[in-house]
Amino acid sequence: MELTRMTAAELIAALAGGEVSATEVTQAHLDRITAVDDRVHAFLHVAADSALAQAAEVDDKRRTGAELGPLAGVPVAVKDVFTTLGLPTTCGSRILDGWHPPYDATITQRLKQAGAIIIGKTNMDEFAMGSSTENSAFGPSHNPWDLARVPGGSSGGSAAAVAAYEAPLGIGTDTGGSIRQPAAVCGVVGTKPTYGGSSRYGVVAFASSLDTPGPFGRTVLDAALLHEAISGHDPMDSTSIDAPVPPVVAAAREADVSGMRIGVVTDLSGDGYQPGVLSRFAEAVELLESLGAKVTEVSCPHFKYALPAYYLIAPSEASSNLARFDAMRYGLRVGDDGTRDAEEVMALTREAGFGAEVKRRIILGAYALSSGYYDAYYGKAQQVRTLIIRDFDAAFGQVDVLVSPSTPTTAFPIGERADNPMAMYLADLCTIPSDLAGNAAISVPCGLATDDGLPVGLQVMAPALADDRLYRVAAAVETALTGRWGQPLLSQAKGLDR
Amino acid sequence: MTTTTDMLVPFAAAIERYEPLIGLETHVELGTRTKMFCACTTTFGAEPNSQVCPVCLGLPGSLPVVNRTAIEYAIRIGLALNCSIASWCRFARKNYFYPDMPKNFQISQYDEPLCTDGWLDVTVEGGTIRVGIERVHLEEDTGKSLHMGGATGRIHGADYSLVDYNRAGIPLVEIVTKPIEAAGANAPEVARVYVTELRDLLRSLRVSDVRMEEGSLRCDVNTSLSPRGSGVWGTRTETKNVNSLRSVERAVRFEIERQAAVLDAGGRVIQETRHFHENTGTTTSGRSKEEAQDYRYFPEPDLVPVAPSRDWVEQIRAELPELPAARWTRLQAEWALSEADMTALRNAGALDLVAETVAAGASPSDARKWWLGELARRANEAGTDLAGLSIEPAEVARVAELVVQGALNDQLARQVLDRVLAGEGTPDEVVAARGLAVVSDEGALTAAVEAAIAANPDVAARIRDGKVNAAGVLVGAVMKATGRKADATRVRELILDRLS
Fold first, then answer.
1. Cα dihedral A238, A239, A242, A245 sign
2. CA terminus-to-terminus distance, chain A
3. Which of A 201-240 lie inside 8 A of B, CB atoms?
4. B237-255 burial: b if 16+ Cβ within 10 Å, else e
5. Which H helix or E strand runs over A277?
6. What are the chain B neighbours of A83 within 8 Å (beta carbons)?
7. Residues B103, A324: C-beta atoms closer than 8 Å
8. Do B298 and A329 touch (CB under 8 A)?
């Protein structure tokens, strides 16, 4: 079998059995990147040399019988928001062009400890602000299902890389849906773990109270394997939860929903939802019922305020988090010609270094936090956040998990929403409530939309620290649907077949 | 910067017409081993930018983690200042751009401080004033800018600036007083004594080395004036850069004189930050608060709330050392000293030294005598303070003990102290090495007495006639002959016995 078509679980087995070396696996993926990434543009930086060196190290260790991590030899595409020693980290922004961080993010370290091969840094909307990767300063990524369409965002590069077989696994961050939305529109699996379940140390911050690193895979089990490898308490992150990692891999293997209580969120449907998405979602719900789950309808009346609350909280935090990009210590510096003072250099650098969406959100956030407006905007949004948490609490009092479509629509054409921020923001309508509440959610492919033939994602949401339930449900859906289709959904992606 | 000379009203005249209202904000660098939010060390005076890491440099992706010892120190301070300790509080971000702020926001506390609503009693001439404490909160220090070139050392007019981030992230506690009213003409003194007593309190708590000259204790002084009888409080100014106790008093005094002149001329005091100048004792205008920046405070999302358990707070309370006020009262009683004597000891910085000397076995009067007498003179000659002398209280106690035992006389004791200060060793080592013990060999002393009588027959005759005061001449002769190592009292006894 072609190495790039294998899942992470299959590669782990083949590597362990000595059927293939980490160097061969890595080289195969590098070759694939060379073959297709000029069309996909999933990567901002391909780490060929360091990836091959890492692979050689894994092969050496295996030869000498040294201890190997659970992902030894498996390539991973890492969103360019994680700091990486020896590799650039740009966050898709001109302002960090050329920055080489002097330290590894906790997740970068854990990937290395697990033996995963960091094959490159992936494209993203600038500072994770966007739903299409069109806000990247380095040009958009393309959806492997249809290269004229967006791969979603902000972690669109990682989702596209996994969907295009450039890497079996990808790492992203989810702040308002930035893992689940691209996973859904690229036809792969993506998880937003419980907030605090995966470390933010070394994740260049967009919105601190929301940012959550998480995995991409082509299968539910692969996502679970990566989820487990990167999770767990980190003393470098105060908001990291000091609790055992939920048994996500075991749950993915069990794939059993019989007796589970599943709630359909009635508030996440209706106007603005693509009919072809809703019909696939309805089929998925019927499937779950047929697999033995007890399905009920659940109302979360405050979810309709989630989007506006999010667009006050996230920009507010971002306006402060992005203040450090001032040309003084690292990154771009503009106008330092000896005639200007520090303040002017800061202003000129920020003017030149940030893109339009980043500036829009900084201005929005600074306004929402300013004296006299704080209570009406940031303060009110935090109250809404509490109401959304209560909606979840009430719902999880009745059911074990909630389900909804992952996105209101399938992948939209590049350029279609680029000049319409409001239309772009709606792409995260279904995913934002879980971010605001800090609980866990996953997107798993549930078919192709009946109207446009593009992938549709089923979102499963679980209470904080019950991430294993996501995998149990997603794996059951995946198993049943793959059986029905006779092949993985992704094999129908034809964007690169030319 | 203002270059015109401010008009002033003489202090007494200003106080006659206006009631001053003052308030103090004191920043204290805590003496924790590591910084507020990272594991970098906090050694003062290290090579610039050598005590830094991704966290205190605010590098993208880095995150703060609260130093538990800093919280403990702040609680200790809060308890010592009779504050309530919050059972739940948060850090907040104070957003503003400045090159020595690595993140362009400072992690501080805003509307949820750790300690609130306390007081500190301070003693000024004429009685005790209770200074209300509004709040005590924790924050991180900024880096330090050095503005090179230009005349003022400030950023404006500088050719370029250098930034040292070693100080960035050092834990700071900010202690804010409530407005201090009705101090009248005492206002400048109250300000100085408050800072003095606060400094002593912090030192006793062992939370900071509280050195104003090294910037580990920094003061901002707020001053406003109210026309007497008007009941209306005036606009306040905030004077920064007040870096010594004397400056605190001078800054308040100057602002009272300056503001009175402004008001007398029918002008209005501008709400602004002013800079104090040590060399002239004046203040000049800094940035105006009316165009003040909006700091856009909001709860720090990278940190979880701080919720000190009641048990922990009570444990810290139980472990508080004796505080200066209680200690003062106790020592005064134990030592049987007057308030004036105690004040003299404190003003000389000798309170701790005397206490330690007494603890090492000396009598309070001996300990006081040596520290305020001989040792104060040595310190003065050396241009240092008492604590700066290289002698331990236990060594002073040993010298006092040797005198009491008669092994040394005062003259020899002074020599021993000299040698100890010169680094020749402990008092016992000096006595042994230099042979500085009193001559107690009766035979040798008797011989010296006989020799002195033989050499001064007329003096001896007068003593025999009953003029015992004349014995001093013979004592002097014996002392000279023995190299001043004899016990003068014993010599006198021997002379009088021989000539009786």
1. negative
2. 21
3. 201-205, 207-209, 235-239
4. bbbbbbbbbebbbbbbbbb
5. helix A275-290
6. 59-61
7. yes
8. no
Q: Rounded to the nearest 5°, which phi and psi values hold at A77?
A: -95, 125
* Cα three-residue angle B32-B35-B40, rounded to 5 degrees: 115
Is the pTM value of this prediction over 0.90?
Answer: no
A99-113, A129-143, B300-314, B376-390: which has the minimum mean pLDDT?
B376-390
Query: Which residue of chain B has the CA closest to A237?
Result: B63
**CA atoms of A274 and A284, how far apart (whole Å):** 16
SS3 content of chain B, % helix, strand, coil (to 5): 40, 20, 35
In one letter, which amino acid is A392?
F
Q: Cis peptide leading into A404, omega within 30 of 0?
A: no
Helices A467-485, A220-230: crossing angle, 10 deg rounding:
160
Q: How far apart are CA B28 and CA B44, in angstroms?
A: 14
The tokens of A223 are what?
């996502």
Place of tokens 């701790």: B352
Closest chain B residue to A318 measured between Cα atoms?
A: B301
Predicted confidence (pLDDT) per residue in B295-317, tens digit: 999 999 999 999 999 999 999 99
**Predicted confidence (pLDDT) per residue in A351-360, tens digit:** 999 999 999 9
Check A237 against B163: CB less than 8 A apart: no
| Contact (CB, 8 A) for B263 and B269 | yes
Rounded Cα gap, residues B491 and B442, in angstroms: 10
The more confidently predicted of residues B194 and B345 is B194
CB contact under 8 A, A203 and B61: yes
For every residue of A215-247, DSSP letters joined together read EEESSHHHHHHHHHHHBS--TT-TTS--SPPP-
Chain B residues within 8 A of A205 when measuring between CB atoms: 60-61, 302
Provide the H-helix boundaries in A124-260.
Answer: 156-163, 180-186, 220-230, 248-254
ipTM of the complex: 0.96
Decide: B93 and B105 in contact? Cβ < 8 Å: yes
What CA–CA distance (Å, rounded) separates A37 from A240?
35
> Cβ(B80)–Cβ(B205) under 8 Å?
yes
| pLDDT surpassing 90 at residue B44 | no
* Whole-angstrom Cα Rg for chain A: 21
B18: helix, strand or coil? strand
Give the tokens for residue A343: 């303040």
* Secondary structure class of B175 (helix, strand, coil): strand
Distance CA B475, CA A388 (A): 98
Q: Is A187 exposed, middle or buried (0-12, 13-18, 19+ CB in 10 A)?
A: buried
Q: Which residues contact residue A148 at a Cβ distance below 8 angstroms, ignoring those fewer than 6 apart?
A: A142, A413, A414
CA distance A61 to A399: 47
Which residues are CB-contacts of B157 (< 8 A; sequence separation ≥ 6)? Answer: B149, B150, B151
Q: How many helices (H) and strands (E) does chain A have?
A: 16, 11
DSSP lists the bridge partners of residue B105 as: B95
Q: Which of B161, B291, B296 to mutate to test the interface with A (most CBs of A within 10 A)?
A: B296
